[in-house]
Fold this protein.
Amino acid sequence: MIYIVAAFHAEAKPLIEHFGLKKLYEPSKFQIFSGNDILLIESKEGIEKSSIATTFALTKFGAGSKDIALNIGICGAVENAFSKGDVILCNKIINHHSKKAFYPDILIQHSMKEATLESFMHPVKKDSLPVEIEGDIVDMEGAGFFEAASIFLPLHNVHCIKIVYDFLDFEKINPVEIESMIKQSIPHIENLINSLLKLNLEFYNNTPEIDNIPLLVNKLKNSLHLTAYMTNELESLLKDYIIRHKKLPDSIFEFFEVQINSKKEGKNYFDKLRKILLS
Amino acid sequence: MTSSEKSFLAKHFSHVYVEKAVLSHPVTIKILENLRSSQIVKIDNYKEVFCRAGQNYSLQEKSKKLILAKKWGEFLYPAPSICHNFGYDNFFYTSNILNCIYSCEYCFLKGMYSSANVVIFVNIEDYFKEIDAVLGNMPLYLSVSYETDLLALEKIVPFSSAWIEYAASKQNLTIEIRTKSTNFKALENLKPQDNVILAWTLSPQEIIEKFEHGTPSLSSRLSAIKKATENGWKVRLCFDPILYIEDWKMVYEKFLNQVFGEMNPDKIVDISVGVFRIPKDYLKRMKKAFANEITSFPYEESQNICTYSKELKEEMINTILLILGNFVPSSKIFVI
Ligand code: SF4
């Protein structure tokens, strides 16, 4: 699943349309859209709201280690080194107030520029820019999103993508303009998503036998009346055996049908099984 | 790695994280000159990046990043008992660089760190100062390529040369630079030093292909060794770790015959032999990050070290020693 967190509807709308997402009518404090293995949540403005929405989405929908979380939205550029509409993948994200810094793992190639993002709790304008600012770009969500998402997902699957909207001299935000800028950035975003999917698919351990271990262990735990300690040991022995032999031992299925009448009998069977798994 | 993998993965060192304190250090400047297309990210402390929670070691290995930092505190550490001391007292190791550009499946570094990224402590002058002070009190035998392969990174940072030049002026210091690299060219212009041992780890080609990812082939390692000995360097051969694989006897016999078929044993200073062994806690962590034939072997544990059963270990060592006996006197062989 790909989780997208956007602050405003103007930022979300082009993504909803492009990915063909449909509004979820489950009771929730948030506007959520989903479809095609993508879930988009609108967080509203601010570090805290972004963090709360991210946590809500990732826990409510049971995010796993191969899932991806992206924060997509507009930002202001501190330096004129950027142009309006530049799509930026953040390689460092700072919470201006807690001074905490976060580093996504950028393991794949992408077509965006890179920069350091600094997140504030209030809108930042050029004339009120703090002297100690380190970010090249500023926003009001990135740090909240990243801190929350990186608790649930590995760092290579959590990214902030920011599109330069202004140079901190803005007066009023124009939703139509935002929509069009996000729309233009979609090819870069899709490219990143595809590479991340490929990375997770190709390089994570994809042995089906290993995925089945919890099921097997549970069956054996019941049939052999194993203690918690024996169950743990069995799990690790089974995993090792499969990695070494690329398959389960043929004789393991006999152990599913065993009828145990005493603790001792269970232990004897377990020892027999252990011997097989150590071979 | 196939070309399709290469096409979507960021290349190694696509990002360099630099501690603000070392931004203007000459070594940093030199390294960054060689990595002009990399993204530079400023950091306060290398641990912010290196020790982050949520890193996936095995995926990071596909695109390692570089971290430049300043080393503080201790510079020298007593070597652990699972290492050979080759008869030297005061056996210490030091770590200018953490982690390696190669990726051997049995490498203890995978159990030691939560990150596959490479850290270079650029302030090598502080290491030298510390060693100067220690040498005033005692002689030192120092492994300088302990948590990395220093020579393999010589193009990025010429620390092997720096150590050799430093050692040249020190009477009571012996250094060992252990490597699988074939980059002897980087040292060719240096004068061989009596107190510098270049130690090459050698493995059968079958083992290299299966477990020592990214490392040079056996034949190219042998050519580099030959050049080093011809140029007058002291060379040690390390048959360590010897790994158990199904047909290990045949594979290692063929391998040792090849090595000494190509190499004059008289040119070798000494030889170390040891089977795979690893601290229990490291193995536990390696298992979490990597599921492979090495980590899943049913080792026996004693005193917090995991290794092959006593019988298997004895059989493996004895077999190797028997073959080595055909080529080298036992006085030159160190076994652990
Ligand atoms: S060459 Fe040495 S340090 Fe590098 S990965 Fe292999 S065992 Fe580890």
